[in-house]
Amino acid sequence: MIYFRGIKFFIFITDIIIILWMILFNASDLFLNYFLLSSLIIISLVEITLSFLKGKETKIYYFSFMSFFTFFTSLFFLFILPFLIKFNIKLDFYGVHFNLFIKIFLLIVIIIYFLRSFDVDFSKRRKVQIKPYTIISISFLVLIMTGSILLYLPFSNTIRIKYLDALFTAASAVCVTGLSVIDVGRDLTLFGKIVLICLVQLGGLGLMVFTAFFSFLIGQKLSAFDRLTLKNALSADNVSVIYKFISFIVLITIFFEGIGAIVFYTEFKKLLPIDKAIFYSIFHSINAFCNAGFSLFPDSFMSFKTNFVVNINLMFLIFVGGIGFPVLYNIYNIIKKKEKRLNLHTKLVLTTTFVLIFFGALFIFLMEYDNTLKDMNIFGKILASFFASITPRTAGFNTIDYGVVKNSTILFTCILMFIGASPGSTGGGIKTTSFAVILFNTINVLRDRKVVNLFQREISFDSIRKSLVVFILSLNLVLLQTILISLIETQFSIRQVVFEVVSAFGTVGLSTGITPKLSAISKVLIITTMFLGRVGTITVIFSLGMTTKKILQRLPEESVLTG
């Protein structure tokens, strides 16, 4: 399977970086050693298992020698690692040389196994039924774990950080959230910042998109299962256009992020050296388009709250990244005259988005006029209001201090964050279309109408049902996490906890300032919330094994008392 190869690629690259660092700097870290050996054991064991399952079907067993060799070698070192560490403490000179020999040996094994794995098309040797939803969930988990190890490396940060903090930062980046327990501009080295922005880019578009795109470039075709998985991950209309759709996603992303970086540079060069201005421009452009919200500035963009160019550029990138690639693809096809009209999905997304932005800005303008906006002129107040209305749509940048805004603004911002971006975008939340469908369905029920009609089209019952399920599951997740964190973090007010949880679920990144002060358990709960918010509650549930069954017969209908 092409995605298994993609996952192996990222794990192998991470292992090689770790072991090269250990060899070059004669360093040793017990946790990294265990990760290195465990990852090799898991990868080789999966290959052996898949080969065995394929052999049971064809009665022809084919096993790679490198898979067995890597598995048993890594297992051997994993068991004797504690003894080697103790042995090295007693023998300083010889211990160092023996430890170096082990590292070089493992590096050679990893490189050979790496080359061997990508020389043979493993997908032709096995046929195992794995659900598309499972692949989507696993790809995000692999990215998070790989990213956490890279951020945990000593040369990724200026001060030694805990692994949990590295995991939190990686999860926030892959889930394009922006919540952080560290100051990324101060605590990460250049390498760490590059790792972070790569995680944001991969998390925003998805590991599977990049894997499929590069496979397409080298002429490797996707299987029917691979195309179906991508269709589910990208909310595409059908599998027949998946190649064109993937190419469009990658190219349009490069285009908008490039334009955004150029615009940022025109302003940043006035404040920063040229090399720093270029890096800051690229970093913030990728973050804005992917709706991540990480900033290298200590106050996010509060110091730019009256800068028209920076604000407009940020809002535009957030808007384009948040409306979803299916919408952009529909508009592109109309411009190219391949389609004649905007489809229902595009109309609903654009209408809902513009309504939320306008009324959101109006509400914030009225509520914060004499509070966080009081020191600005009328132009600055309008600009900050629109920015504060757009950024909760899963972006996470801020030009006002959410630690001092009114309770009404906190509650309204929570609603915007809960709704989130649109399907097939780089954002989270329940999505704008789900919100619109539920809203119009409620109106129709009050009017005693049986169907929901929008833009001269009838909304399918399946869309209404799924929207309600997403809403209920998401609401329950937010309530559960809020209750748990409130029980643990008694020093924070309920408004702070609710805002933090909803921000994590909507993959927004806004905070009242409590993120770095959370306990270890609360950080794990926030990580879980970010993951579920990005991947989707329904996706995770189906990836855990829940199956659908066709109804062969219908039972007599009977009404129950409600309301």
Radius of gyration: 25 Å
Estimate the helix proportion, in percent.
Answer: 55-70%
For the termini, the CA-CA separation is 50 Å
Can you tell me the residue ranges where pLDDT is under 50 for at least 5 consecutive residues?
Answer: 88-96, 119-128
Q: How many beta-strand segments?
A: 2
Largest sheet: 2 strands, antiparallel
H and E string:
HHHHHHHHHHHHHHHHHHEEHHHH
Structure in words:
- With 563 residues, the chain is mainly α.
- Among the domains are: 1-128; 326-543, no CATH class.
- Helices cover 67% and strands 1% of the residues.
- The protein contains 22 helices and two strands.
- It has helices spanning 2-24, 30-58, 65-90, 92-119, 132-152, 163-174, 184-187, 190-205, 207-217, 224-234, 242-268, 274-289, 308-323, 325-335, 344-367, 378-390, 407-419, 432-446, 461-488, 494-505, 520-535, 537-543, and strands at 453-454, 457-458.
- It has a two-stranded antiparallel sheet with strand order 1-2.
- It is globular, with a radius of gyration of 25 Å.
- The two termini are 50 Å apart.
- Residues 88-96 and 119-128 have low confidence and may be disordered.
